[in-house]
Specification:
By secondary structure, the protein is mostly helical. It has 18 helices and no strands.
Amino acid sequence: MLSKFNIDKKRLISNFFSLSSVEAANYLFPLITLPYLVRVLGPEKYGLINFAAAFIYYFVLLTDYGFNLSATREISINREDKRKVLSIFNSVMFVKFVLMVVSLIIMLAMVFSIPKFRQDWLIYIGTFGMVLGNVLFPIWLFQGMEKMKLVALLNLLAKFIFVIAIFIFVRKQSDYIYVPLITSLGFMTAGVISLVIAARRFGIIFRMPAGKDCTSSLKEGWHVFISTVSVSLYTSSNAFILGLFTNNTIVGYYSASERIIRSGQRLINPISQTLYPHISKLVADSKEKAAYFIKKVIVVFGGVGFAASILLFALAAPIVNIILGNQFEQSIIVLKILAFLPFMDALSNIFGIQTMLTFNMKEALSRIYISGGILSIILALILVPLWKHVGTAMAALITETYISLAMFAFIHKKGILYAKRQVRQH
């Protein structure tokens, strides 16, 4: 038993440091390319690229269909059963490819029928490559098997391709068309390589899945999918909604600050991605042990998020001046408001993903996310016309705070975080 504990502990630590290297790259690479891109492209073209990315991200969400969590959980629980793993893999991949074809049809119909999109159709089609790359990369398989070193290497490869290509091909403002193409190339390259590795490392064989397996995968991921879509209404949709009300330049002011914040939030992602399959396994074995473990990580997880928020708020002005330049002075106030998102995001991750989802409280989690998404839309309709990019930042912070408090209230009512010997059933 002690030997098994040591093996699990070593694997957890190994996965954490593997993911930490990925997030370090995700944090450092944007700090290298962001100052260059915003100065070469300017607020207007930079805003256009981010507006297109926000639009295409809806299709990434559709093709993900919550599998990054639901399939990770299923793989983690059944990792010793090779036949079951193969069944899960093929059914999930088949569903994702079908959803990608549906997404492509919808995207093309919208781009060529809506004037705002049609004038920049190449940008949207080029950006859609991210959807294909995301479908090809079965990160849920590697996470469920807790083999995150491979994911780390592939992510580093994709980011490295992006950084090098940006400096080679983007030299003047008119080169903005290359940015989404380069981004998509990085995603697709990593995706193809990941499938080759999955076939060799896990014995993955591509087969047509049974209809019942596809139905089971869809059913398993449904609540997570609804939750993820709802989350996108108050996270990834901000730039898109702002663009519908204003223009690309205003979107540029907001997106640049948000990109800095998202880089800060990435610092806590290794903890989240490492803990989720581990806690899922703990819950399957013992809910009491899982609850005790969750309590132990709250201090670390929340502490990292709080420290990141304080630093971002205190250093907002110099960060904008150094990274973005004087064209983005209006981004300072946005950064100050959004600075508290890493802390709120850390709390919501603990209470929602690590606790409610692993304890199979998917319906309750979906309700909280849906209510948060509705709140976000209402706030955006009120605040964006009044204060534009500043209003968008305010709506984002208020919504994230509500989500965290609602999750905490629910699990507090269930007594999970304070359980010592027993965990009440939901």
